[in-house]
Amino acid sequence: MARVGDAVKSLREDDHSGFDRPRRRSRPRTKERPDYSSLPTARIISVDRGRYRCVLPDGSPVTAVRGRLIDRKGVIVGDVVTLDGDVSGAEGTLSRIVDVAERRTVLRRSADDADTFERPIVANADQLFIVTALADPPPRMGMIDRILVAAFDAQIDPVLCLTKADLASPDELRAAYEPLGVPIVVTDPEADLTEIRATLNDRVTVFVGHSGVGKSTLVNRLIPDAHRATAEVSDLTGKGRHTSTSAIAMELPDGGWIIDTPGVRSFGISHVRTSSILGAFPDLSEFADECPRGCHHETGAIECALDDAVADGRLSEERLASFRRMGRAFA
Ligand SMILES: Nc1nc2c(ncn2[C@@H]2O[C@H](COP(=O)(O)OP(=O)(O)OP(=O)(O)O)[C@@H](O)[C@H]2O)c(=O)[nH]1
Ligand SMILES: [Zn+2]
């Protein structure tokens, strides 16, 4: 990563600036990447006003600050970092982040579509739960589609997690999303969570959804000591709400991580290019290779080969319609 590379290039200065203690003068002055191999790595579980809560591989917590050369936006929840200094985690101690491992994935969103500034929100997730209530608040397919697009773009496997099945039936949403090949799990306050636990096991799963859909309620059932604050839906706009305001990673009892993100009202995807969605539809991309150059494959696109594939039965109409609906999520 360029950012880390740049930081490393000028690390010599940092070595002698001594954030937390004076550096030994004998340290070799080198422009080479310093040898961090003996330093511990940790995962970032939350970020709060410049303080980074991390956990070491043995599960013990450490609080860290950024080394001088690590960019302010360069460390996000889910990152794996190298720590220097005091990693005892003892009260009042601070460790220092000196390196950020290359990210396997980055989930981004734009605050809204007028805002082209992309905000990386979570690093290294390999699965994304789109948590959607079947009622209260009612499901919005537009929002589900946009989060799906963000997942496809980030190459993170989406799962549609439908909550509040005690209030409404999941049939309609199942019918809309099964043709996309997106796995669907359904829950309610009494539901058996075996299938959801199996889906989460040993993976890093980010939970995204509208405020009030029941993310915290589900997290608390899956991780009893998570103590995520929950709120009555009617209180969602009220003052003094103590529910989450930034992402937080929590380890599952049987292995794997959940990264819960604050409830959102909208999910901006202005940073995503349409072409990146095709990657999530490998069965369509072979046909799209035959399209005229610059084809956006939208409904009515001139000579779009996807229409030909449907016309001669090589591709199902339903599947093409699903893909095109993803394209319209941009509109
Ligand atoms: N009927 C029903 N209510 C639920 C269910 N899950 C959660 N709730 C209720 O929905 C409300 C909101 O739940 P939360 O878990 O706080 O929602 P959240 O998604 O964490 O909300 P944010 O903190 O804004 O992200 C609470 O009153 C929950 O008791 C469910 O499966 N069925
Ligand atoms: Zn096309």
Would you write up a description of this structure?
With 331 residues, this protein is α/β, with parallel strands linked by helices. It has three domains: 2-100, OB fold (Dihydrolipoamide Acetyltransferase, E2P); 120-260, Rossmann fold; 274-328, Ribonucleotide Reductase Protein R1, domain 1. Helices cover 25% and strands 21% of the residues. The strands form three sheets. Strands 10-9-8-11-13-12 form a six-stranded mixed beta sheet. Strands 1-2-3-5-4 form a five-stranded mixed β-barrel. It has a two-stranded antiparallel sheet with strand order 6-7. Strand 12 (248-251) and strand 13 form a beta hairpin. The relative contact order is 0.11. Bound molecules: guanosine-5'-triphosphate (GTP) and zinc ion.
Keywords:
ribosome biogenesis, binds guanosine-5'-triphosphate, OB fold (Dihydrolipoamide Acetyltransferase, E2P), rRNA binding, Small ribosomal subunit biogenesis GTPase RsgA, alpha/beta, Rossmann fold, zinc, 10 helices, disordered N terminus, Ribonucleotide Reductase Protein R1, domain 1, RsgA_GTPase_dom, 21% strand, binds zinc ion
Give a brief description.
The chain is an alpha/beta fold. The chain contains ten helices and 13 strands.
Q: Which parts are unreliable, with pLDDT below 50 for 5 consecutive residues or more?
A: 1-24, 233-244
Please report the total strand number as a whole number.
Answer: 13
CA-CA gap between termini: 32 Å
Instruction: Determine the CATH superfamily of the largest domain.
Output: P-loop containing nucleotide triphosphate hydrolases
- Give the neighbour order of strands across the main sheet: 10-9-8-11-13-12
Bound ligands, each once: guanosine-5'-triphosphate, zinc ion
CATH second-level architecture of the largest domain: 3-Layer(aba) Sandwich
Mean pLDDT: 82
GO molecular function, one term: GTP binding
Keywords: Cytoplasm, GTP-binding, Hydrolase, Metal-binding, Nucleotide-binding, Ribosome biogenesis, RNA-binding, rRNA-binding, Zinc
Enzyme class: hydrolase
GO biological process, one term: ribosomal small subunit biogenesis
